[in-house]
Amino acid sequence: MMHRRFSETPGRGLPPSRTIASLALRCPPPTSGGTRIASEASAPSATPPGPALRTGTSGPRPAGGKRPGEETRAAVPKRREHKNTPAARRGCDVTKPRPGPQAPPPAPPPALRTRRNRGLRFLSSPWWCPAAVALGVLCLGSLVTIIMLGMQLLQVSDLLKQQQANLTLQENILEGQVLAQQQAEAASQESQRELKEMIETLAKRLDEKSKKQMELNHQYLNLQEALKRMDNFSGPCPEDWLWHGKNCYLFSSGSFNWESSQEKCLSLDAQLLKINSTEDLGFIQQATSHSSFPFWMGLSRRKPDYSWLWEDGSPLMPHLFRFQGAVSQRYPSGTCAYIQKGNVFAENCILVAYSICQKKADLLRSE
Length: 367
Description:
It is a single chain. The chain is an alpha+beta fold. Among the domains are: 135-233; 242-360, Mannose-Binding Protein A, Chain A (Roll), CATH 3.10.100.10. Helix content is 51%, strand content 11%. It contains eleven helices and nine strands. Strand 1 and strand 2 (247-251) form a beta hairpin. The longest helix has 105 residues, at 128-232. The model is unreliable at 1-78 (pLDDT under 50).
């Protein structure tokens, strides 16, 4: 033991106190296991070390058969010596308390001492090295797993970013397609509206044309019925006679003097032309305008100082027309009127000319 070494080397010339002090400088502070021993052994350090330190049994025994401090040393379990520690290699006994004038440190609580003792027992156990290796391997595996998970997370993040970009591109494409489809639908609706308006306009026009067609068909049927009636009836005037207003007119194909022409008209149940209104005058002027031949009228006078009279004895209305040329000449057979190219002239009644016969139209028969 270390205390025995000190007891065997006092004769080297150093006092015991210097030897203990140098030992305290060389040795490390005691651990928790030796704290109590140092505190208990520091009490008798006031007495100089002597032979009692060499054996640890010198001195008188008490009545109980034990020395002071022996019971305390027996209660504390002896700490295992570590020969391979630096303190052991320097020749220090870690279990021996360091004497000195210092006050003993306070004793740790029992729970702390129990935990420290358990830690020391675990470190001195043969299982701590495999446990440490297993823990290191577990930490290394966890680190590798974390690195792999981080790499996979980065890959997944890149993949998600790429998919997000693809989705954004597809969304933009879909938005463009939707916009184009909306524009196409708007154009289609506009075209449909225009077509609908055109159809309505064409329908209106077709309806109007249908109405006009129906009216034309109705008129056509009426004309057909009128033609059928005309086929069965020649009209209010005889054949080759012209119908105007209430009268029928016949232009002769031969030339005669005024009296012969009068007789010819009487044979046809008619008389020579008599103009009663401006409408009749306009019709005769239009009918004779295409011919240069003169046509006898039913107007005459016997002497120049007589008035112009129609064949039925009625006088001439002065506002109807005026004679062209000389009308004051005297003729033995009298003066008679004729019409040529729409103008009225006076001439000798014995001259020959064409004539116009006139008679009433049979209006009741035409109805």
